[in-house]
Amino acid sequence: MVLPTFGINNSVLAAERIYASYSALELSISVTALENYAKTGVTDGDLAAYQQYLPVEKLQELRRILLNRVKVSPAVVSQLLYTPQGEFLLHRLAQVIKTKSDQPEPGFDALRSALILASGEPEGLTFLNVLRKYPSTNIHLDVAQTLGIATELDKLVNQTHRAIAAVSQKSKIEATAIQQPNLSQLPNLQVPGKFKSQKYTLKFFDSTRNRLLLTDVYIPKIQTSTPVIVISHGLGLDSSNFQYLATHLASYGFTVAVPNHPGSDTKQLRSLLNKHTNELSQASEFKDRPLDITYILNQLEKANQSDLRFKNRLNVQDVGVFGQSLGGYTALALAGAKINFKQLKQDCQLARLEKTWNMSLLLQCRALELNINNSGKDYNLRDKRVKAVIAVNPITSSIFGQSGLNQIKTPVMIVSSSDDTVAPALSEQILPFSWLANSSKYLVMLIGATHFSTIGNASPANQQVPLPAEMIGDASQARRYMNVLSLPFFQTYVAGKSQYIPYLNASYTQSISSKSLGLSLVKSFNTTELAQVLDIKGGKSLKKKFPTP
Hints:
Blueprint: H1 2-5, E1 17-22, E2 25-30, H2 31-40, H3 45-50, H4 56-67, E3 69-70, H5 74-81, H6 84-94, E4 97-98, H7 109-119, E5 125-126, H8 127-133, E6 138-142, H9 143-177, E7 197-206, E8 211-220, E9 226-232, H10 243-250, E10 255-259, H11 266-273, H12 285-306, E11 314-324, H13 326-334, H14 341-347, H15 350-353, H16 359-364, H17 368-373, E12 386-392, H18 401-405, E13 412-417, H19 425-435, E14 441-447, H20 469-472, H21 475-493, H22 506-512, E15 518-522, H23 527-533, H24 542-545
Parallel strand pairs: 1-6, 9-10, 9-11, 11-12, 12-13, 13-14
Antiparallel strand pairs: 1-2, 3-5, 4-6, 7-8, 8-10, 14-15
Helix pairs in contact: 2-4, 5-7, 7-8, 9-22, 10-21, 12-13
């Protein structure tokens, strides 16, 4: 469905021969010989003739590179590679894979179509499939640069695995130290609560920013005043994606508001697919999203007095915010994290960006436009009514940095996914969690989850681009985790019900962790511990020596 939209023909000419440079060698190898070696480990044909010149370990590394798979769909690859951020990455890859060895300015169309087509193959997006789908009979490949890139990615993957393992081990230590009541006697928070709710879709229009904010509001059928929870969706999503969480929280007595953020919702993604825009979102979304929620809370406060549907049943002074991805950024900004333009200027220099594989950093760098348009302006997006926030797969490392995150004084829970390639766990959640000075903080690790695992099914009428099941993982379990962790967190820190504290520790999460999707929780994990895990001397210099790869 996606390929014709971008003018890509699935029956393009396929590559037949690789012309590769390695050290002083100029190699000419058929794609068939490479494919056979990758699948069987046997060097024959053209490749056998060069075996004596190539170290065994380099051949083995080459085989692994050819077969390593990235979990991604053609739709996601298409969306990404037609944005400025995607083209920036294509610049890097096009230095390695070229149609002609003397090509002065690498063209992107051939490489872009090969990446999209390869991601649609049964084996997924592998380097071998990219070579097979390259729309030219001959490819010129720089082997040394290819191996260099593979080494960079390997190092990042290994560091991430070590950090996640350390969090899991710390969680076990914390669980052992807890004198926990009999867990089997705790009420099961996976089942819905006793309250039924009514859903309303309200139209709020902020004329000062020209923003129409269609907002789903779930009101439990209770006569007493109820705290308010706001759910902020991620890029390309809408309010329907978190209906599962909204209904669960409402069944336990919360009023839940789920806005649609114009400019970074499903409509924006469809516009990108239809080539009406080439941006995932505008830089202004970094300020407008938090302001959306502040505006909605203001309107709900007014409606609480005048709208008969609410009848003074909303407690808009005690608010919790749950956000996923860019919504996670939104939640942290509302909790007091400040945009860190100094950090962004350091991390967004061209020399650094040319070495990064952190896709979220390219998005975070867009926020620099806010500083250019409003030179010297300090964006304070905090809303004092927000008493606690949950940020799932948030982007944080540069847009907030350590000094920005240290502004948060309210309780915060950061949820990270081990297989997140959009907002990588190590640089965007684990390291930033270690910076938080707040004592009421929690880091949750979903072992085996991706960036998309916690996202619920959208309404069919919204025409969202579907994602393959393998990109999502055990979504039903991930959503159950969000239900059973969000509920006690907001009950404790927003509703002030201390009886829910026994759910917010490593012992409880260990008891509900499943084999299909592991779950760990820690309350403490500092930079010194992380530096030791990553074999970096001096925890204080961790940011300098580990600059968001």
